[in-house]
Amino acid sequence: MSGDPAHPSVRSAPGARPTDAERVRSVLAAAHSMTVVTDGFRTEVRHLDGTDVLGRLHLHPAAPAAGSPLAHRERPAIRLEFTDIAPTPVRDRVRARVTLLGRLLTPYAEAGTGDSTCVEYGRVILETADGFSRIDLDELDRACPDPLAPYEAGMLTHLLDDHPDLVTLLLRLVEPLPTAAVRRALPVAMDRYGITLRLEERRRHHDVRLAFPSPLDHVEQSGAQIQALFSAARRRSHRNTLPA
Predict the structure, then answer these.
(1) Torsion of CA 9, 225, 165, 185, to 10 degrees
(2) What backbone torsions phi and psi does residue 177 show, to the nearest 5 degrees?
(3) Contact predicate 111/45, CB 8 Å
(4) Could you state, in order of their start, the residue ranges of all structural domains in the chain?
(5) Which residue in 183, 194, 187 sits closest to 229, CA to CA?
(6) β-strands 9-12, 57-60: how paired?
(7) What does the pLDDT profile of the chain (244 residues) look like in tens digits?
(8) Which of 131, 183, 209, 213 is at 20 to 30 A from 120, Cα to Cα?
(9) How far apart, in whole angstroms, are the C-alpha atoms of residue 73 and residue 70?
(10) At residue 210, what are phi and psi to the nearest 5 degrees?
């Protein structure tokens, strides 16, 4: 599986990582577009502006099975599709896909109208390189978006465009050390627990997670945690000349 660029292996440093429900909430919070399928029509909505979809979409528990079958059939099915794309020019930029299935309880209102839409919750499916997982409504309600989710794209592109030398510096923290087969290293993700780098070889790639000293609670804490990683990298005795 690690040899297939479409299914990169993941080497993780010790430490926590977001739960599947948290990943879904983060994708929804940072989404700038989505695909809506209802009443046989497929609509691309591209003006979400990074506002949390769940602020406009109210999810309700499914009606008991003993409820009226006719009333259930009269509720149009709705499908919302989201694609999480890496903001940096890495190989295989799709990081995750989220699909929300349910039935409309109120007429669908396109994002930006100021109206909310009530949906009877069916299920949410998260697809990543690790496979598929299903998240129930209780899990989704308990989870919170990652505090970095709305800012992650800007932070990663700033790091890569303005400080490529620091990306190379972070390679000193990778264990085991990257080999000469690695042609390029790019930041591919950042969350409250750390930074993920994608190491690209000629025909394959894999990801490595570099954990922050402690998880973040607010985006304002990110500067100190990132600097702590840079300081730890500088303390490493070995040098690395891989391209950034």
Answers:
(1) 10
(2) -60, 140
(3) yes
(4) 20-142, 151-235
(5) 194
(6) unpaired
(7) 333 433 344 343 456 899 999 999 999 999 999 999 998 889 998 877 667 888 888 999 987 765 555 455 678 999 999 999 999 999 999 999 999 999 999 887 664 455 688 999 999 999 999 999 999 999 999 999 999 999 999 999 999 999 999 999 999 999 988 999 999 999 999 999 999 999 999 999 999 999 999 999 999 999 999 999 999 999 986 555 555 4
(8) 131
(9) 5
(10) -110, 110
**Residue closest to 168 by CA, chosen among 160, 156, 157, 180:** 160
Per the structure block, which two tokens stand in for 76?
């149009």
CATH superfamily assigned to domain 151-235: PNP-oxidase-like (3.20.180.10)
Tell me yes or no: is domain 20-142 CATH 3.30.70: no
Question: Alpha-carbon distance 227 to 232, whole Å?
Answer: 9
Token readout for 88 is 């940096």
CA distances from 6 to 24, 126, 182, 205, 244 (A): 21, 16, 17, 9, 22
Q: Please give the Cα distance from 184 to 95 (Å, whole number).
A: 18
